[in-house]
Specification:
The protein is of the alpha/beta class. It has one domain: Ribonuclease Inhibitor (Leucine-rich repeat, LRR (right-handed beta-alpha superhelix)). It has helices spanning 275-280, 298-319, 321-325, and strands at residues 8-9, 22-24, 29-32, 45-47, 52-56, 68-70, 75-78, 92-94, 99-100, 116-118, 132-133, 140-142, 149-150, 155-156, 162-164, 169-170, 183-185, 208-210, 232-234, 241-242, 260-262, 268-269. The chain has an 11-stranded parallel beta sheet, with no helix packed on it. The chain has a 5-stranded parallel beta sheet with strand order 1-3-5-7-9, with no helix packed on it. Strands 11-14 form a two-stranded parallel ribbon. The chain is elongated, with a radius of gyration of 25 Å. The chain starts with 7 loop residues before the first strand and ends with a helix. Residues 317-326 have low confidence and may be disordered.
Length: 326
């Protein structure tokens, strides 16, 4: 193990170490390509994160004993493994902040021992997610700022505590979440539909929920009022409407200043919006939100109206002889 040093240059050939079990060179200044590894059939821990490595990930299909792959925070590109079933004992997979550009293989969700997978920051990583996530070991799946698309899994029976999928191109309804979940981010996608009133009923451990900048409609789910652990709620920049619940200021998340909420801007809540809500909401620090009339959309509507007036004025000028002569 030579991690946390100031090692520079390329990783030398590993052809002379066929019995190597731990390759730990993280947090240094190594650069260049990763050398061939497929002969290291005993390798269990593969730690090269936090370097300056580039090029594609070499073939690792023969490394059936891998327990942990950590290659994040480099400049790696090309494809990720196409068949994760080659690594039946894999527990940790960290590949975030690189430039992998293949499709994510759904075989990663078949691994029975995988506990955490982090893929964020690979802006060209494509693909879809399975309709069901059922691995009982999986507690964290993080893939923010990628190019994943299609539907979110509509059935999640795993013991997930963290699910971060912001900044992709998902375009489904919001899935039901497992009762173990603590932190969720679906922000900056194209989710639609609504959150039914009982959506949060069984999520008693939920600490953060971020679904801002989507197309979610419907009314405010009153089941949020049951969440005593919730400290971060972001529902702004959607199409939600209707009256806010009359008891909303007594909900646990609004009973303390040590929370982070933004639910006003971009939605169309009916009047009245309680002054306490305005004081509490980070998206309306100066009471600019107009209840019943989306403050976020007003500039767009004004622009649209101005464009229509300009179009008709121009059209009349071009067809009216009197206007043409003047």
């Amino acid at each position: 193990m030579l991690h946390n040093n100031k090692l520079e240059g390329n990783i030398p050939s590993l052809n002379y170490f066929p019995q190597l079990q731990n390759l730990v060179l993280r947090n240094s200044k190594l650069e260049g390509n990763i050398p061939p590894l497929n002969h290291l059939t005993q390798l269990q821990f593969f730690y090269l994160r936090d370097n300056k490595l580039s090029g594609p990930l070499p073939n690792i299909d023969n490394l059936h004993q891998l327990n942990s792959i950590q290659i994040s925070n480099n400049k790696l590109n090309g494809p990720l493994p196409t068949n994760f079933s080659n690594f039946p004992d894999l527990v940790v997979f960290l590949a975030h902040n690189n430039d992998f550009d293949s499709e994510l293989s759904n075989t990663i969700f078949d691994l029975q021992h995988l506990e955490i997978a982090i893929l964020s920051g690979n802006k060209n990583l494509k693909g879809t997610l399975p309709t069901t996530i059922s691995s009982s070991a999986l507690v964290g799946f993080v893939a923010e700022g990628c190019s994943l698309s299609g539907d979110l899994p509509q059935k999640i029976t795993s013991n997930l505590t963290s699910l971060y999928l912001a900044g992709n191109d998902f375009s489904s309804t919001t899935p039901s979440l497992p009762p173990t979940i603590r932190d969720v981010s679906f922000a900056n996608n194209r989710l639609h539909g609504s959150l039914n009133d009982n959506f949060f009923n069984d999520l008693k451990y939920l600490n953060s929920f971020d679904a801002r900048n989507n197309r979610i409609g419907g009314t405010m789910p009153t089941s949020i009022g049951k969440l005593s652990e919730l400290t971060d709620l972001k529902l702004d920049l959607n199409t939600m409407s209707g009256d806010l619940p009359s008891d909303i200021m007594s909900w646990p998340i609004f009973m303390t200043n040590n929370t982070n909420t933004s639910i006003l801007t971009g939605n169309v809540w009916g009047c009245p919006v309680p002054d306490g809500m305005r004081d509490h909401s980070n998206d309306d620090p100066t009471h600019t939100y107009l209840c019943g009339d989306d403050a976020f959309m007003i500039p767009l509507l004004l622009f649209g109206a101005a464009y229509v007036l300009f179009y008709f004025a121009s059209n009349n000028a071009s067809t009216n002889p009197e206007l043409q002569r003047s």
